[in-house]
């Protein structure tokens, strides 16, 4: 029974190493041993796959101990109950947190500081479900049992609290859905700095229009504003300053 299980884990780890080599330029010229010994994201995945099998077998203490040690060594915390597909790549990984009921599909890329967390203290499904071929930018927070569709992109520092359709891009806090040129952004190395933001664009347009209105008002009032002001008659009586 354990033989096929450990064999499956070995295949998953080899796929994880291949994913790191494919998506991290720094890993393309190094050996599999170097990746396993130096890439924290790959190490955290290896530890999780072992802890997940033990957790599914009913063990409680040992999987949690593995999670504790992994977090101390890599800065990545993955609950042993989380379900993770093949070829996940966690780039750098420091600060990544993946909750107990989170589900992650195949060929997903996660950058540092990402949280797949829950909201409140409810039981049952309380963490995100992430589809295949999803990229999640650094610092993004996916909270609650939201569903992120296949091929979606989550921008850096985005807070996702509602579902994201397939092949959409979501940015902002709270996250709102946009698309890049009306089509799916290509590749995991999307330009996270210049993602479109329609709300920011609308605010910019309003600001430009307000500035134009102010300039036009200033041009209309300029003559009166520059005219000499004279009193119609001299003031009489005590001044308001007293004395």
How would you describe what is shown here?
Strand 14 (169-171) and strand 15 (176-178) form a beta hairpin. The protein starts with a helix and ends in a 17-residue tail after the last helix. The protein folds into 2 domains: 2-194, Hexapeptide repeat proteins (UDP N-Acetylglucosamine Acyltransferase, domain 1, 3 Solenoid); 196-225. It is α/β, with parallel strands linked by helices. The longest helix is centred in the last third of the chain and has 29 residues, at 198-226. The model has no long low-confidence stretch (mean pLDDT 83). The protein has a 6-stranded mixed sheet with strand order 3-6-9-12-14-15. A 5-stranded parallel sheet has the order 1-4-7-10-13. Strands 2-5-8-11 form a 4-stranded parallel sheet, with no helix packed on it. It has helices spanning 2-23, 32-38, 40-56, 61-74, 198-226, and strands at residues 77-78, 83-84, 89-90, 97-98, 103-104, 109-110, 115-117, 129-130, 135-136, 141-143, 147-148, 153-154, 159-160, 169-171, 176-178. It is elongated, with a radius of gyration of 28 Å. Helix 1 packs antiparallel against helix 3 (40-56) and helix 3 runs antiparallel to helix 4.
What is the element layout, followed by pairings?
Layout: H1 2-23, H2 32-38, H3 40-56, H4 61-74, E1 77-78, E2 83-84, E3 89-90, E4 97-98, E5 103-104, E6 109-110, E7 115-117, E8 129-130, E9 135-136, E10 141-143, E11 147-148, E12 153-154, E13 159-160, E14 169-171, E15 176-178, H5 198-226
CATH-defined architecture of the largest domain: 3 Solenoid
Binned, the helix content reads 25-40%
Number of helices: 5
CATH superfamily of the largest domain: Hexapeptide repeat proteins
> What integer is the average pLDDT?
83
How many separate domains?
2
**What is the approximate shape?**
elongated
Task: Tell me the Rg in angstroms.
Answer: 28 Å
